[in-house]
Amino acid sequence: MTELPTSDKDFFPCAALIKEIGRGAHGARALSREVAGALYAAMLEARVSDVELGAILIAYRIKGETPDELAGMLSAAHQHLTPIQAPAGRGRPVSIPSYNGARKQANLTPLLALLLARRGVPVIVQGVRADSGRVTSAQIFAAMGIAAAPSSDAAAQALQHDNLAFVPIDVLSPALTRLLQLRSVLGVRNSTHTLVKLLNPFTDANAVRLVNYTHPPYRDSLMGLFGQFPDLAGGDILLARGTEGEAVADTRRQVQIDWMHDGQSDVLVEAARRDLDMPLPPQPDSLDATTTAAWIRALLNDPSRIPDAIVRQVDDIVRIAQRPA
Question: Most buried in the list 41, 173, 177, 273, measured by CB within 10 Å?
Fold first, then answer.
């Protein structure tokens, strides 16, 4: 087992750890939860040199993270959040991560959040403000007149009044934001892009988290993470393959949804293929934020037009959020 390096508050030596994780997909070895957590905390606190930081991020990009490593990193990430107080007496709050946006399909994450809020469920959508080449939830919310919360306290007030708040990750955690932004420097995503989708942004540990993954192997890693480390799986987790990386249901097909709760895992919804003879559900004429916002408003005014997959998703989330703790 790799030992935790001796460090001080200003510098975290990484050479020995890079030697372990930087030997490629087949030669690298995993770090323990404790060591991975300490390393990631140092990265968040800017106690790792730029050269070592780049090496670590690329090493994990190639090697991938084990459940133990994800557990250590996620614990460290939660220590660098400013959490949000959910309103009392309205069932458990729901967290929807939104870090990908739309490229080929309309981004309907704001529709999902607004429908849940209408049903009385407090909902936080947390994510990036913008992403080059994609239409983000932040941009769609802005087109609908829903401003990003400037602080966690402001988000709590929005939940109290409207059951809904969009909270940029730079408000929740400047430290995580700095690591996310290294994508523009390195050209590829890093471990932080996975971790932000796993966050519980609430002070309430019994929240409901929608967690999505982009590639099937990540399902095994995430099932392992929350199965092995129940301290990180507090509340309920709905795990499913994302729609272009977003947690909203795919209107073209039904993906499998795993429900992790009370120390166990169940298949909440089985995957189902779409009948090829059936027409595809309608989409907005354009993916831009203004057009998508107008289309969402039209669906809210005429709920009969809401795609069946999203109706089912809302019903499932409401049922889970309102079940006894």
Answer: 173
Three-state SS at 312: helix
| Helices then strands, each counted (H, E), the chain | 15, 7
pLDDT tens for 165-221 read 999 999 999 999 999 999 999 999 999 999 999 999 999 889 999 999 988 888 999
Q: Percent helix, strand and coil across the chain, each rounded to 5?
A: 45, 15, 40
Give dist(CA 73, CA 91) in Å, integer. Answer: 29
What does each C-alpha distance from 272 to 207, 222, 260 come to in angstroms?
A: 28, 22, 20
CA distance 187 to 219: 24
